[in-house]
Amino acid sequence: MTAETIDVAVIGGGVIGLASAVAIAASGRSVVLIERHRRPGMETSTHNSGVIHAGLYYPSGSLKARLCIEGADRLYAFCAEAGVPADRCGKLVLAHDESGLNELERLRDLGTTNGARDLEIVDSSFVHAREPHVRAVAALWSPNSGRVEAEALVRALEQRFERWGGIVLNDAALLGTDRQGDRCVLQLAREAIAAETVVNAAGVHADHVSSLLGGETFTIYPCRGEYAELKPSRAHLIGGLVYPLPHASGHGLGVHLTRTTGGTVLIGPTISYQDDKGDYEVSREPLAAFLEPTQQILPEVTLGDLKYGGSGIRAKLHPPDQRFADFMIRPDLRQPWLIQAAGIDSPGLTASLAIGALVASYVSERR
Length: 367
Known about the structure:
The structure is a single chain. α1 packs parallel to α5, α1 (about 15-25) runs parallel beside α8 and α2 packs across α8. The strands form three sheets. Strands 5, 6, 7, 13, 14, 15, 16, 17 and 18 form a nine-stranded mixed β-sheet that branches. Strands 1, 2, 9, 10, 11, 12, 19 and 20 form an eight-stranded mixed β-sheet that branches. This protein is α+β, with helices and mostly antiparallel strands. The longest helix has 20 residues, at about 65-80. A hairpin with a 5-residue loop joins β15 (about 255-260) and β16. The chain folds into two domains: about 5-45 and about 150-220 and about 325-365, FAD/NAD(P)-binding domain (3-Layer(bba) Sandwich); about 85-145 and about 220-315, D-Amino Acid Oxidase, subunit A, domain 2 (D-Amino Acid Oxidase, Chain A, domain 2), CATH 3.30.9. Helix content is about 25%, strand content about 30%.
């Protein structure tokens, strides 16, 4: 099989792979995006809350903190230019009693250190004015948090990539690799691609792809998040983004309520480590499991107001007994022609365009 020659191959067609491919193609390089599904964005990128984060939660100095702040600004600008539904609707992080006030202050201080703008601790009257049905004694108000329609973002990034001359190969799982001079030959089912540089943006499968490429050994831990929804007749109860204080385990932000750009109110996500990277549905939480966390925010909600929503799988770089792992975005330590963009969980959607720019800078350094 004769290999097609290309400057850069990006493996993985989620928002990270797409954003990286766009930034690399814009620099004048020839780029192929390799996606194992029938179209880009079918996994984590479109199975999440669609929230644009402001940078409240991540350790200062981490890639997550820096790229979240930079990425949010880039994302709002891109969405406005490309006509992707997105807005700065703001977010409330609630304290239900006085004991939560210290945690609100900690979040405000951390977010401010990270660069989040205009954070403010507000009282119950402020909360009531914005969200009349929500119960809280105080909240952290983040006016620069927002929401985006992830499906539309994926389509816009794909269109932008193709406008720069990029090529998308769908239904193209990576089967193996070889070397051809100074290039890596990627063996796909119907063709072979010889690339000078390869970007690993394969999401929950990034560890397997790294192994196939002879790169570093690491483990991606799949972590499922499930959603319920408010029935359409009750969607008016929430107008924006309403969060509890972060989960005590450190593994998630807690079950929160998100009114999407389309008007659906999502409840979730839950958080559960699992072995299967493709299991979105087996042994799902009963609908009743969503009732208590929802009532903490919306006391008037009943079980009859809820219905099942979707689910998604996060690509985490740390096991359940650890609290934090940063993004892995850098040249591989074994293969200098391989750029890793792995372990991209939250705030990956928010940070996607900043991640793409960083990946493109590493590609540029190779020439």
